[in-house]
Amino acid sequence: MLEKFDVLIVGGGPAGIITAITARKYYKDKKIAVLRSVEKGAIPCGIPYMISSLKNPDDNTMPLASLAANNVTALVEKVITIDRKSKTVKTEKGAEYGYDKLVLATGSNPIIPPVKGADLKGVYPAYKDMEYLKKAVLEIKAAGSVVVLGGGFIGVEFADELSRVAGVKTTLVEMLPQILTNSFDPEFSKMASDKLSAAGVTVIMGIKVEEISGNGKAEKVKLSDGRVIDAGAVILGIGAVPEVAAAKEAGLDVVERRGICVDEYMRTKDLDIFAVGDCACKKDFYTRRDTPVMLASTATAEARIAGANLFSLKVIRENKGTIAIYSTYINGLVLGSAGLTETTAKKEGFEIITSTAAGKDRHPGTLPGGSDVTVKLVFSKQAGIILGGQVSGGQSAGELINLIGVAIQKRMSVSELETLQMATQPYLTSAPTVYPLVVAAQNASNKF
Asked: Which CATH code of 3.40.630.10, 3.30.390.30, 3.40.50.10800, 3.30.200.20 fits the domain covering 332-445?
C-alpha cells in the first residue's frame, strides 16, 4: 500500500535532518518523513576524529533523536527512482512512497581516483556509514604504515589524527604544489604543512600517485617520481562528487560533478522538488560561478531556506551564494578561510588590496593559554568591499573566521571594519587597541 507524506526528504545527513526540523517549525500540521540509506550514519565532519580524538567511534553517530522529538518519521530506505508525474519514489527494497513536496538531500560520494589498485582491500574511501567506518578505523590503526591521498581538509585532518596513533607511520601525498590549496594562500598552507611535519607526518607535495600495489591487499604506493612507499592502508581523502543519479534519471537539471540545479529558494526546475546540501549546485557569492563547496555549515543553511519555503515563499530567505567558509585544526593550529583568497581573487580578475595583521589572542599577551593570531584580508580595490579573509591561531580563530564570514555576507567596507565595535576581555580576546581584524582593516585603508 502506498504511503503518502506531505514532505518527503531523501537523505538523513545534516541537510536532511535540518530540513525536516525547519519544515516542522513552519508547517506544524504536515506529515513529514526522512528516508536515509543506512541504519547508522556518521557526522561527516567528525569522521577523521574517529581515529584518535574520539575514544569511542560510536560517539560520531549522526543523532536522530531530534526527528522523533519533532514528530518526523524516520525510515531506512534507499531511494532509487523518482516519478515526477505520479509524485512517488521507489526504494531499493521495493517500497513506494508518495509526496506533495520532495527534498533531495542525497549528499555526496567519495571520489575513487583512476589509479591502478584503488579497489584493493586496505584502501579506504570516507563513506558515511558507521559500521563501515568503525571496521575501517580498527584496520587503519593496526596497519603500521598509512598513506593518505589528498591534501584537502579531510586528508589533512586524517593525517593529523594518525600522527597521534602509536606505531603508525603516516605519509600525506598531494599532487598540487601545496596542501589546502583551494582554500588558503601559500603562506597559510605552509603553516599547515609545517605543523604536520612537526607532528611526524611525511608530507609529499607536487607528486602524483601512479599505483597502489599488493597481493590482494594494499602494501605499496608508487609515486610519479619513482618512489615507492610502504602502505599497510591507504585513505582516499581527495574529495567527493554529488549523488545525483535519481535526480538525473527523473529529468531534473544536473551539472556534471557539481550537482542538481536550484534557484535561490533551493527549488529545482520542478517546483515541488527541492535539493539541499552536497547534492545541490553551489554558486559563488561574488562571481555566481558554479563552485564545488561541500560543507555541513553550507548544507544546513540551505536546509533552513528550503524547509521554510516548501509550500510558499512567505518566508523571504534566499541563498545569495556560497562564501566558502572553512576552518580546520592541525596539531594545535587553527586555520580559517572565508570568501576569496588573494590567489582566487586575482584568478577571477578582481582588482584587490590585501592586508595582514598579527598579534596575541590574550591581553596582555603573557597571560597563560594565549596564542599568536594572524589575520589576512582581501578587499576590492575600487569599492573597498571585503572579498575574503584568512586566519591562523589558537581556538579563538575558529570564531574569528565566522566574524569575517558575516562581514563578507553583509558586504562590509574597509571603513566599517576599521571602526568595528567588539567585546574584549583579557582571557578571551586580543586587546581592543590592537585587535587583529581591525588592524588588518586599518592597514588596508592606508593602501587605498
From this structure: 3.30.390.30
Residue boundaries of the structural domains of the chain: 3-37+77-109+241-308, 112-238, 332-445
Compute the distance between CA of residue 337 and CA of residue 376 in angstroms, rounded to an integer.
9
The answer to whether the CB of 377 falls within 8 A of the CB of 441 is: yes
Judge residue 225's burial from the number of C-beta atoms within 10 Å of its C-beta, 0-12 exposed, 13-18 middle, 19 or more buried: exposed
Q: Phi, psi (5° rounding) for residue 308? A: -80, -20
**What integer pLDDT is reported at residue 318 of this predicted model?**
67
pLDDT (0 to 100) of residue 403: 97
CA torsion angle 249 90 87 299 (round to 10): -70
Please give the Cα distance from 225 to 215 (Å, whole number). Answer: 23
Secondary structure (3-state) at 107: coil
State if pTM tops 0.85. yes
Is residue 407 within 8 A of residue 431, CB to CB? The reply is: no
- Look at residue 105 in the predicted model and tell me its pLDDT: 98
Is 209 in contact with 364 (CB distance < 8 Å)?
no
Low-confidence stretches of the chain (pLDDT < 50) are none
For the chain, how big is the Rg over CA atoms in Å?
23
Domain spanning 112-238: CATH superfamily? FAD/NAD(P)-binding domain (3.50.50.60)
β-bridge partners, 82: 89
Phi-psi region of 108 (alpha: psi -120 to 50; beta: other; left: phi over 0): beta
Helix (H) / strand (E) containing 213 = strand 209-213
**Distance in angstroms (rounded) separating the CA atoms of residues 257 and 279:** 9
Q: How many CB atoms lie within 10 A of CB 353?
A: 20
pLDDT on residue 315: 58
Over residues 285-304, the pLDDT tens digits come to 988 888 888 999 999 999 99
